[in-house]
């Protein structure tokens, strides 16, 4: 089931799968039907925030019950050092604007680090009915089926996804970078969830993905899943994926894509 013979990694993966499943059900079934058409601007945002926090509390509560000495890093404020060498990196709701608008592209992302290295990752996409998972060295899976990224296409035939910041000045520069990239690619997509985009690279549904401004909880599980599916991931040349820049693509697409992003200054505002 888990794709690994390492008992710790198997345990962490199984716990992440169950926590993500429960959180996904909470978010899917607990979303008010009229959330996207609420009368005031603050009301729907507040509800999304409440759902975010409730999902993170569910995840951290479940994991703490089974592994009380582990640490946490979560988008909604969970930050506990822990004493076991294991830290959970959690995004309880990646794609909050999609969730607000009842678009299906949102996910629960849970990764487990051991001594600073990501060893297990799960991304649950409830509205697709999909669960992506990986353990370090054990391959990537969609459900019980192993997945691989696409063979490299020439860059001009590559379908690449990205995301945009919510700060206007940052988003404007990101749009300039995208405008310069579009003539060099097949096309650009904007899905609205980094976790889902990384899974789609892993599953061969995209030829690449890049974004500036991602946090550890946006990246941790999806980065592992993409790498275990055969993709390369990184940031600026010589660096891993980070807030500055994250890039994921099959070998042969990754290198020229990252070169263009460096040339176009995708790593700064």
From TrEMBL:
Reaction catalysis annotation: a myo-inositol phosphate + H2O = myo-inositol + phosphate
Coiled coil: none
Matching PROSITE patterns: IMP_1 (PS00629), IMP_2 (PS00630)
Pfam families for this protein: Inositol_P
InterPro entries the record matches: IMPase, Inositol_monoP_metal-BS, Inositol_monophosphatase-like, Inositol_monophosphatase_CS
Bilayer-crossing regions: none
First-level EC class: hydrolase
CDD domains from the UniProt entry: IMPase
Keywords on record: Hydrolase, Magnesium, Metal-binding
SUPFAM superfamilies for this protein: Carbohydrate phosphatase
Needed co-factor(s): Mg(2+)
EC number: 3.1.3.25
Protein family membership: Belongs to the inositol monophosphatase superfamily.
The protein's name in its UniProt record: Inositol-1-monophosphatase
Organism annotation: Streptomyces katsurahamanus
């Amino acid at each position: 089931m888990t794709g690994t013979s390492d008992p710790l990694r198997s345990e962490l993966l199984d716990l992440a799968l169950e926590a993500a499943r429960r959180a996904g059900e909470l978010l899917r079934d607990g979303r008010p039907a009229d959330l996207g058409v609420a009368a005031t601007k603050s009301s729907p945002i507040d509800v999304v925030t409440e759902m975010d926090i409730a999902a993170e509390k569910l995840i951290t509560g479940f994991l703490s019950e089974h592994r009380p000495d582990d640490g946490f890093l979560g988008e909604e404020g969970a930050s506990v050092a822990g004493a076991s060498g294991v830290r959970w990196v959690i995004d309880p709701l990646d794609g909050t604007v999609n969730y607000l608008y009842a678009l299906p592209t949102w996910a629960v992302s849970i990764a487990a680090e051991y001594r600073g290295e990501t060893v297990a990752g799960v991304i649950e996409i409830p509205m697709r009915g999909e669960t992506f998972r990986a353990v370090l060295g054990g391959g990537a899976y969609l459900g019980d089926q192993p997945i691989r990224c696409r063979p490299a296409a020439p860059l001009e035939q590559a379908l690449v996804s990205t995301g945009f910041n919510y700060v206007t000045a940052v988003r404007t520069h990101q749009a300039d970078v995208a405008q310069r990239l579009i003539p060099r690619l097949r096309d650009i997509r904007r899905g609205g969830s980094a976790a889902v985009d990384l899974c789609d690279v892993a599953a061969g549904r995209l030829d690449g993905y890049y974004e500036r401004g991602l946090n550890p909880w946006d990246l941790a599980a999806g980065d592992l899943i993409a790498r275990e599916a055969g993709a390369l991931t990184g940031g600026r040349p010589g660096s891993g994926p980070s807030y500055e820049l994250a890039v994921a693509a099959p070998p042969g697409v990754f290198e020229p894509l990252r070169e263009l992003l460096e040339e176009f200054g995708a790593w700064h505002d």
